[in-house]
Structures are given as C-alpha cells and as structure tokens.
UniProtKB/TrEMBL annotation:
The keyword Endoplasmic reticulum applies. It is a multi-pass membrane protein. It is found in: Cell membrane; Endoplasmic reticulum membrane. One of its GO terms (molecular function) is trace-amine receptor activity. One of its GO terms (biological process) is adenylate cyclase-activating G protein-coupled receptor signaling pathway. Keywords: Cell membrane, Disulfide bond, Endoplasmic reticulum, G-protein coupled receptor, Glycoprotein, Membrane, Receptor, Transducer, Transmembrane, Transmembrane helix. It comes from the Eukaryota. One of its GO terms (cellular component) is plasma membrane. The chain crosses the membrane at residues 26-48, 60-81, 104-123, 135-161, 193-213, 253-277, 289-311. InterPro entries: GPCR_Rhodpsn, GPCR_Rhodpsn_7TM, TAAR, TAAR1, TAAR_fam. Residues 40-304 form the G-protein coupled receptors family 1 profile domain. The lineage of its organism: Eukaryota, Metazoa, Chordata, Craniata, Vertebrata. It comes from Ictidomys tridecemlineatus. This is Trace amine-associated receptor 1. Belongs to the G-protein coupled receptor 1 family.
Amino acid sequence: MLPLCNNIINISCVKSNWSSHVRASLYSLMVLIILITLVGNLIVIISIPHFKQLHTPTNWLIHSMAIVDFLLGCLVMPYSMVRSVEHCWYFGEFFCKIHTSTDIMLSSASIFHLSFISIDRYYAVCDPLRYKARINILVILVMIFISWSIPAIFAFGMIFLELNFKGIEEIYYKHFHCTGGCSIVFSKTSGVLAFLTSFYIPGSVMLCVYYRIYFIAKGQARSINHTNQKLHFGLEEKNGISQNKKRKAAKTLGIMMGVFLICWSPFFVCTVMDPFLNYTILPPLNDAFIWFGYLNSTFNPMVYAFFYPWFRRALKTIVLGKIFQRDSFRCKLFLELNPQ
C-alpha cells in the first residue's frame, strides 16, 4: 500500500517513499542552500545601511533585492523543503495559498530587481554625464515600488482568485487536488501570463540592456586604441566612470544574465509548456526546477556584492566585530568616488 499524507484514503495525497538516507541527503542539501541564502543576503542588508560610503541609489536597489531574497529564504524555502522531500503539506490549505502567493511574489520581485539593476547600470556605463540626473533616489524608490507591488498584486490576485486554473477546474479537481498537498497548476492562459510577467519581459529587458552595454563598452575600448591613452583616461575619469569600470560593469551583467537564465529558464519553460503537454511533466522534476530557481537568490549577493572589493572589506568588518565600534559607519571601504 502506498504511504499517504493523511488517513483519508480516497482523497489523500501520496507521500514520498524515499529511504531515510535519501531524505536526510535532500534535507541537508536544502538546509545548506537556505543558510547560504540567508547569510549572504543578510550581510548585504546590514552593510549597505550601516556604512555611509555605501549610501548610493544603486546600492539601495541592491539592498531592496537582498531583502526580497532574504525573505524568500526565510519565509518560503523552509516550507518548500518539507513539501519537496515529503510530497505532503502539513500546514493547512489556507497557509498553502499564502505560501504559494508569497513564493510567486518574492521570486518575481527578485527578477524585477535584477531587471531594474541592469537599467541602472546601463545609464551608469552608457550615459555617465547624465547618470546622476537620470538615476536619483526618487527614481530608485519608484523602481523598488514597482518591483514589490506588481509581483504582489499578480501573485496574490492569481492564487486567491484561483485564476491559475480557471477554465480547467474539472481537470484540476480530478487529477491534481488532494488532501495534504500544496501544488500549483496553471492553465494555458495563466501559464503564458506568468511566463511573460515574471520571466520573459524582465528577462528580455536584461538581455537587451546587457548587449547594449557590451557593444558600447567594446566600441569605446576600440576607440581608445586610436586616441591618446592618457588624455582619454583623464576625460573618462572626469565623466565619473573609467573604462575599467565599464568593462567590469559589462562583465558583472554578463555573469548576472548567465546565472539568471541558468537558474530560472528550466522552471518557467516547464510552467508555460506543461499545460500544452497535457501536464505530463513529473512533479519531482518540477520541484527540482523550483529549487534551481531558488538558487538565483542564493547567488545574487555573490554576483552583485561579493565581486566588489568594498563588500569584502565590509564583510571582514562585520565578521571581526568591528561594526560595533564607535564611528564604524565611517569606515573607508574604497578610495574611488564611485564604488560601482
């Protein structure tokens, strides 16, 4: 007899039949992912408000993204871990809706932040003279507001209004709904909408911005070879961003795009394709893709903060306890006028 999530045989979800060793291995791996996500993003959350040198518009956008990723690791991933390993949901049907909505909201908000960060870097690299006029704290606050509000409205509206399986109610209640489970099923329409809103549109923005930055940086590097190196360097420094910083920004955005696409592409491709394949994608495979997507929040602080020397100095200050010293917020983390 198959193991069940509860005693109601006819309507109960089937529990996983993995051995204790497999479960222990999965729990260990997922706990490690959660801890790395929490610690990495918490360091970013502490560093940017504490150190005065880091109070720049760009860093506040990174700070907001770190809060999103931290909440994902704190509020969503632990419950997803139990569901993924046990194939059961022990926390009630209403909390299932809360968890699913929060999961979609935070995952989408993280992706929205990535998209806005790429736009910020575009203006910093491609239009440095007008960067401060275009990207000020008010603009950043608007970006942050959009990054939180649109995913929240989309996620909670879709789940609590049950729009995700509208039109396929009979299929959902016959083949997917069971007691003790917490799975999300998309219809063809809602699957395409989720794909466009949470992945394709922000991902396309990131991709277009990255290629634009790459070709501009490449063209500027080529022009240096035909001009006076010293004079051009002086002009670039006067404009507020060196050629080296432009190459670094392009490289960072390239890594950002690679990590984003590798982590989230499998899940969203499956999400949009599954309804058209008559829901033939196995739930364990979908669970694996969800966790692959979560890894994007684990890697974000490494990509956007760990790559910069100022962050390593801030990390050292925090680990050694120097952050509790008087006037530690004035600690010089870098010499340049612009750490970005």
